[in-house]
Amino acid sequence: MVVTTQTYSDIWQNCLSRIKEQTSEEEFVKWFKPIVPLDFDGTTLRLRVPNESYVYHIEKNYIPFLKPIIHQLFGLKTKLRYAVPKTEPQTSVVASEKENATIHKFIAQTDTTNIKNPFIIPGIKKIVIDPQLNPNYTFDSFIEGECNRLARSAGLAVAVNPGKTPFNPLYIYGDSGLGKTHIIQAVGMEVRQRHPELQVLYVSMNKFQSQFQNAAIKGELNDFIHFYQMIDVLIIDDIQELAGKEKTQNAFFNIFNHLQLAGKQLVITSDKPPVELKDIEQRLLTRFKWGLSAQLQQPDYETKIKIIRNKVARLGTEVSDDVIDFLANNINANVREIEGALSSLVANASFLNKKITVALTKEILKVYVQFNQKEITIDHIQKVVCQYLNLDEEKFRSPKRTREIAQARQIAMYLSKQHTKAPLTTIGAAIGGKNHATVLHACKAISNLIETDKAFRAQIEEIEKRVLAK
Q: How far is CA 360 from CA 353, 421, 448, in A?
């Protein structure tokens, strides 16, 4: 039996009422209110959504409670079909009909049954693929600080003008948990907002390797390479996983070269800079250095404050400024660990029905994070720097300006900015009686050396460990 337009629209309004009861107001307005029911033939409910991200996000996050509502009001055999407005009238979106599907195929409305690679079918100029992006990873939700400003700024520049900037490839590196995946997915999300006509794809190197192996077994390597050569913005996560995989490296080299020559954009992440990658062909390493390499570092005090405040707001709770200040001062961890520690704190306080205080924070989080034993001071940093460099403290504090003493002061200024709350004027006054401009210059000089000199970076990391250990 085919339900009339008025009937299925009314039923959909009943669905929305139930959905609203199980979501927040913000979620409901963003993800469900824009949906328009188009048709219901007794088994298939067609819904119009604003873009492909809705399909991915709804099926990934809301299907567990959405399907029972649909089945109860429309019938147990009801299947969902999504339609996205397109400039090309032949294109629509079809969601996978597998239970709890999280991957969707976006195909042209023509006979592509059993076709290995729709890109090479004559007459199909363009198809839309799932970019594999998380809608929550945007530039708006990324907390910017001194530790990540270069990477974020370069990522935004790439998103505004993909393939047309000197940052190609954009190579972002740093330790785990500092936000590499967030930034590169934000690039993808921004490109799709600004340039909806471009094909964007995010893929981890492990997944790329798995796809390559499957294609090799099935004799479909040409289709595999051709598919990737059709991407406009290719985002590869954890490129270091390419190490030792000679055949995959060769395929990726061909893809990389083709995209570069075609003016397409590549965005890459790694846990190391290109010069430190092992077991990867030199011709690839050389190409990784063609664009911009941007490092993500551990968040400084100001950035940790922003991260904590943002996380508190997302948790919908209240934490006093003294607790926030205590956390920022005493947790030396990456972004992911800071957010995890805060989630644990809020959850435990809720279960215990206690107000979050500094004392409770210390008690709860002692099993999750290692707190600083005492506040780090500029004087403490100066002493550690002098001890490590075997430099007399009197000479360090004297008016002498030898190259050795000047660099030691710059190191002390850099570490003081990273690990104390002292303003630049205070740091400069304490270290040689300098002004804030001198401190800024020193911090920039040390940061540049850390990025370009591997041995110097190792020295700074060792000094930093000693600073934090006391």
A: 12, 23, 41
Give the pTM. 0.53
Do 291 and 172 lie in a common domain? yes
Other beta carbons less than 10 A from residue 372's beta carbon: 14
At residue 108, the 3 state secondary structure works out as strand
Q: Cβ of 233: how many Cβ atoms within 10 Å?
A: 25
What are the C-alpha distances in Å from 150 to residues 138, 193, 257, 450?
Answer: 16, 22, 26, 15
How many angstroms separate the CA atoms of 236 and 171, rounded?
Answer: 10
If one counts every other C-beta atom within 10 angstroms of the C-beta of residue 129, the result is: 18
Last residue of a domain, one of 62, 97, 112: 112
How far apart are the C-alpha atoms of 166 and 151, rounded to whole Å? Answer: 14
DSSP 276: G
| Ramachandran category for residue 119: left, alpha or beta (phi over 0 → left; psi -120 to 50 → alpha) | alpha
* Residue 118 domain flag: no
268 shares a domain with 159: yes
Q: What is the pLDDT along the chain (470 residues), one digit of tens a residue?
A: 344 444 678 888 888 888 887 777 878 888 888 898 888 888 888 888 888 777 877 877 777 778 888 888 888 888 888 888 754 333 334 443 333 333 333 332 223 233 344 333 333 334 557 888 888 888 888 888 888 889 999 999 999 999 888 898 999 998 887 888 999 999 999 999 899 888 899 999 989 998 898 888 888 888 888 889 889 999 999 998 888 888 999 899 989 988 988 889 999 999 888 888 888 888 888 888 888 898 888 888 888 888 888 888 877 777 888 788 877 877 776 777 777 778 888 887 777 777 777 777 777 776 666 555 566 889 999 999 999 988 888 888 888 788 888 899 999 999 998 888 888 889 988 988 888 889 999 999 998 998 888 889 888 888 887 886 65
Question: How far apart (Å, rounded) are the C-alpha atoms in residues 420 and 212?
Answer: 48
311 and 287 within one domain: no
Q: With the C-alpha atoms ordered 267, 57, 136, 205, is the resulting torsion angle positive or negative?
A: negative
Token pair in block for residue 417 = 């900015």
Extract the tokens encoding 167: 């940052």
Domain with 415, as residue range(s), is 378-469
Residue 122 domain flag: no
What single letter denotes the amino acid at residue 102?
T
